[in-house]
Amino acid sequence: MLTEEGLIREVNVKGVSRFEAKIEAHHHLICKSCGKITDFNSKELIDYALLLIQNQKDFKINTAETNFYGFCIKCKNKELSTP
Ligand SMILES: [Zn+2]
Ligand SMILES: [Zn+2]
After folding, report:
1. pLDDT one-digit tens code per residue, 28-44
2. Domain span holding position 45
3. pTM of the prediction?
């Protein structure tokens, strides 16, 4: 499996899998309407998450990824145009 070798990573959101070639941690913007996943890179967010969790004693944390949920521009516009 490529995923096990770390060459490709699997992003699984609500049972929908998507494979990405990126290896570094990054975040996702996920549309609640159509399920579109957009990458969002923020080293600052990772650093901040790790800072918040640094006192966790029972778990060795390496990295953090965050999912943001909302509506993509397409679905947002659809929402607005619907009476
Ligand atoms: Zn959408
Ligand atoms: Zn991604």
Report:
1. 999 999 999 999 999 99
2. 25-83
3. 0.71
